[in-house]
Amino acid sequence: MKLSNSLSVFAALMGVLLLASCAKERSGATGWSYNDPSNGGFERPPFVEQETGPGLVLVEGGTFTMGRVEDDLGYNWDNIPRRVTVSSFYMDETEVTNFMWLEYLFWLERIYGDSYPEIVNKALPDALVWREKMEYNEPFVEYYLRHPAYRDYPVVGVNWLQANDYCAWRSDRVNEVILIREGLLVHNPEAQVDEDHFTTDAYYAGQYEGEKAADGIEDLRPNSSGYRNVRMEDGILLPRYRLPTEAEWEYAALGLIGNSYQELISDRRTYPWNGHYVRNDDNGGKFYGQMNANFVRGRGDFMGVAGALNDNAEITAPVYQYAPNDYGLYNMAGNVSEWVMDVYRPLSPQDKSEFRPFRGNVYQTKVLNSEGDIEDKFDFVVYDIPGVEYFLQEYQKKAAGRLTDEDQNLIDNLVTYVEQAKQDIKDRKTDEANQRIQDGMDLISSSDAKSAPDLRDGISQYIEHTPGDIRTRDVTVAENIDRRNYRKADNIDYRDGDFESSIYYGNEDALNNDFRMYDAQNGTPWGPSSLITNRTRVYKGGSWRDRAYYTIPGTRRFLDERQASSTIGFRCAMTRVGSPVGFSQE
Hints:
The chain has 586 residues and is an alpha+beta fold. It folds into 4 domains: 2-39; 54-373 and 539-586, paralog of FGE (formylglycine-generating enzyme) (Alpha-Beta Complex); 382-465; 493-533, no CATH class. The protein is built from 13 helices and 18 strands. The radius of gyration is 28 Å and the shape is globular.
């Protein structure tokens, strides 16, 4: 009898569990079921954790002392130590290589080469950065980027703006291949030309359909067509690739995760490895006595002695040449210095927040039409028109006395286009203004003037958006009424360069003239009056041409965002969403 009752109870429990497994998951707030078409179709897609993108490794966040750990050799006092917290994020295990960049150039040529060759031109690294007045470096000018011998070496000659463009391109290509992998899009590169190519923002906005391999994801809403595109809420597509912030880069380079027990950091690191030596001090190990990074050992010693080349590299080295740090990141000391997101200010360590510190925020939003929908994506090239004007003015000054009549006539016509474009901007005719500059580029293409290639190359460096990009704008003060955390779009000058932080605070004349401490000459963004402007960016780490001092992660230097160097490369990062350590480790 007891056995019979027990079996009855077990059977009843199994029945309840079976019914529960078949029932819809319900909201903890309202009790309404999810994923139920009869209930309106509100979805709760399955999600475990963020997928790791190609080339990335997870950098578990935490607190650390950011800033100078050695003597301030330059007496700049721009890097005082400060404790901050960095969230978990992803970072490329190596620098971006020449071969990766050639893949990028190939794609640009395929998409834009026929209609907008200036877009391809803008992405070309500056090979002339290898030239030095008293060095013979022409072989690097000719071979470094394209010869297969250098394909796994870090790309150089790339400025900060080009690095950001690459990050945006990579984001879209990775998300496109995810949709192809999931059986939602057909891989059809021949159909993608000019603005008709995949971007993540355009896809989310419903402005890119492509060739579908399936109708889409099932749409549970009662009045839908039955299928829909992937949404951010599905968690299928990845966040954007981007440059790391200065704090993220420095934190990742130190790699303190391998130098701590529980919450105790046993030794403060000078370099991305243990100890205070630049040589491998693993006594008895295979690499004992060898350099841990690619840098200049001493005066005139870039690679060591023949027969025992210590770092095996007179310039850069292949990106996997040296052992990684404790996060699995290669060459976080030496090889090339690396661009980061931050705008440079001498006092940033004192001004920036303790949590996820960063200087450089310019808040933007997508442009909406009168119906509240996202405005149609660009189908033309968008130029920085003040930048184009500055370039033409400077070119005429530098080339004075050497211009032929044909050259001068071409420049005069381009200046006329710029003046017309400026008037269009005043009349809020943005599309017409950019078409004026494009007409000027077409004029250059049809010209036989000797200056035509120079003018084409120069103007192409002031491209802001390309066909296929979603339209964005800076946020306005008017739309942020009563907001307390921010009001205006551009916060680069906050606490260091804005009117409130200047010696002219309280001077009404300076306020009325929109005074800015770090403005360039003539109140424009162009023609710097000092080395520090709102376009001056931080780069971190040492390079193949630096002494050991600069391989220390805490060091910081700066350069204008439009300038490049044979010693500066970059690597991408990606925001980690959700758990700091990953679902499997919680």
